[in-house]
Design a protein that fits this description.
The chain is built from two helices and two strands, in the order ββαα. By secondary structure, it is mostly helical. The longest helix has about 35 residues. This is Signaling protein.
């Protein structure tokens, strides 16, 4: 059940919202999106390159090379999503302080 804020005059001000407004200014939006694109490129490329390198060092063959490249690429994608969520949240908090 949502709590309501009550003003000193006794009138309800509506539900309490502890989360900051998620709207970002244009400058903040461009900054966050640019950073996410840069980090996504690095994380995913790192994952694919790591899979290729491990498979090459262990001489696993083409099939395992593609499996490792995909697996490490997915780990890079997961890291990108984690980074994006954190960056978006921090930029929204910074916007309201």
């Amino acid at each position: 059940m949502a709590e309501s804020a009550v003003s000193p005059s006794g009138q309800s001000n509506g539900p309490i919202n502890n989360r900051p407004n998620s709207k970002l200014g244009l400058r903040s939006l461009v900054t966050v999106v640019s950073t996410i694109v840069l980090v996504a490129t690095e994380f995913i490329a790192l994952g694919v390159a790591a899979g290729w390198a491990v498979a090459g060092l262990l001489e696993l063959g083409n099939a395992f090379e593609y499996v490792l490249m995909t697996a490490f690429g997915l780990i890079g994608l997961w890291a990108t999503v984690r980074f994006a969520r954190g960056a978006w949240r921090l930029e929204a908090e910074h916007q309201h302080t």
